Amino acid sequence: GHVAELIAAGEVVERPSSIVKELIENAIDAGANAITVEIGEGGIRLIRITDNGGGIGREDVPTAFLRHATSKIACEEDLSHIGTLGFRGEALAAIAAVCRVELLTRTPDSQLGTRYCIEGGVGGECEDAGCPQGTTIIARDIFYNTPARMKFLKKNVTEGNAVESVVQKTALSHPQISFRFIRDGVDKLHTPGTGRLKDAVRELFGRSVADNLIEVSHEAPPYRVSGYISKPQYAKSNRTLQHFYVNGRFVKTKTGMAALEQGYKNVLMAGKFPACFLFIEMPNELVDVNVHPAKIEVRFAAENDVFRAVYTAAKSAILNFSD
Ligand code: ADP
Ligand code: MG
């Protein structure tokens, strides 16, 4: 009852990028090491996500689209301990409620795949389909049946940029997965999936960024900060290359930004900003993970401790670096 209401309060589908985020998380959960995201017209007309994960057995296909059928949350308590991706068991149901959805999937133990279509929440029959192992989900015409919500969508280019940003952020936190992004038929990115963060950075932001990073690795129990920050002389004129993750999830954190920049005090020119790809690990109970799935702002139980951990991580990496 109460948990369901809390969950329902957060609408899963706000715009194409929220669909892409959920579908990528499902593909990751399914063990894929290659994920292709394709969009047409900013994702408003078409979203197609293909993975090479474990697939869905035919008998499980219709239930996967039932609301909360698969929720891993047993009680309200669990909401504060959200560790795994895909915890709400309502993404597919929510997406199928507002898009025309087509699913193609095949498990490794089955010769034949399954095709299933669901529109406005109404599913058809499962049909035989020849398809590679894994899952393809196509979501067309977002909000075709809810014009009031369609009105809130921005221009194709803005929605498409938001999708691209989701793919980039996920590719950085999962360098072992090869991500490919195709926008209106044009290949926009293709990470190699080597498992090395720097290789993903090079693909996404270019050689000059990737070749001018300093490695960060700092333990301050119960915190751990790792990843890369830019060499002081390669700072940027804005903060768009500042990427923070907490326990694997992309976040916006003013504390992190301030701590990072404090670490560069006296070594950065005025008006210049460091780049960073920083992963902060901490016990889940020290992070306020917002119940709203689309929110990325975090609050920490001990902001000062997080500040000190990030500051010290950056400062010591800069001090140790000589070039
Ligand atoms: P949740 O991820 O919270 O379980 P979803 O609605 O996102 O809920 O997905 C429902 C179920 O459908 C998942 O639990 C999973 O069993 C199955 N599923 C969804 N996407 C995939 C995928 N790409 N590969 C394999 N199984 C999937
Ligand atoms: Mg999910």
Automatic annotation (TrEMBL):
Q: Which domain of life is it from?
A: Bacteria
Annotated DNA mismatch repair protein S5 domain residues: 201-319
Family statement: Belongs to the DNA mismatch repair MutL/HexB family.
Q: Which function does this protein serve?
A: This protein is involved in the repair of mismatches in DNA. It is required for dam-dependent methyl-directed DNA mismatch repair. May act as a 'molecular matchmaker', a protein that promotes the formation of a stable complex between two or more DNA-binding proteins in an ATP-dependent manner without itself being part of a final effector complex.
* Name this protein carries in UniProt: DNA mismatch repair protein MutL
What is the scientific name of the source organism?
Bittarella massiliensis (ex Durand et al. 2017)
Q: Which gene encodes it?
A: mutL
